[in-house]
Task: structure prediction
Amino acid sequence: MGMLEGKTGIVFGVANKRSIAWAIAQALAREGMRLAFTFQGERLKGSVEELSSTIPGSLLLPCDVSSDAEVESVFAMVGEKLGRLDAMLHSVAFAPREDLENEFVKTSREGFKTAHDISAYSLVAVTRAAMPLFQKSGGGSVLALTYYGADKAVEGYNVMGVAKASLQASVRYLAANLGPKNIRVNALSAGPVNTLAARGISGFTSMLKHHAEKAPLRRNITLEEVGNAGLFLLSPMSSGITGEIMFVDCGYNIVGL
Result:
């Protein structure tokens, strides 16, 4: 019996087997949590369907987080099929490629709005929609994924770094709002990992090398390590923690020069 037997969760943002969201989902499933997975559009459906099918009892639901109607529909389905909710993982981020590749000062107005809508506001939208199901469980835990580029200017991260800073502020305000309802909201800031999203960052290979040379543990993190940290933050083991940004980066964030 895993420690999460009888618990339920929903995962937004699995793209493929190298996704941080998938690593966390596997850790949750290993401990017995029943999971629902969302996908956006037919292009991603096949990959998410293939992965979710390896977890017994999981649900697969379409959701475009930029649509309030689709967000509401997803949670209506989760309520119908699962009856309640204990945990939610938000691993959703997007910015137009040209706004990621250009200097930040050249960010377009539309690109800035899109990055914040998908990468930050969506956390507010899905958390609001999840609240009734969390309350049926007597509370719950929300986890968002962020990155060091929200705290420091990281070359190549550009408008996504600004959107992640907005996400982190949203985590704190949601935690303050929802604490009285026993709903916890935290974020996990992982070091560089070779994911599909990371490959879109210019100079990512050099970033991995630099991180391994400078981090106190003198290496890069693994997906399994991030998965286990996500499990901790989404489980009762972290029941006294909310509004926090937990770094899982081999200590890189503590180093100056």
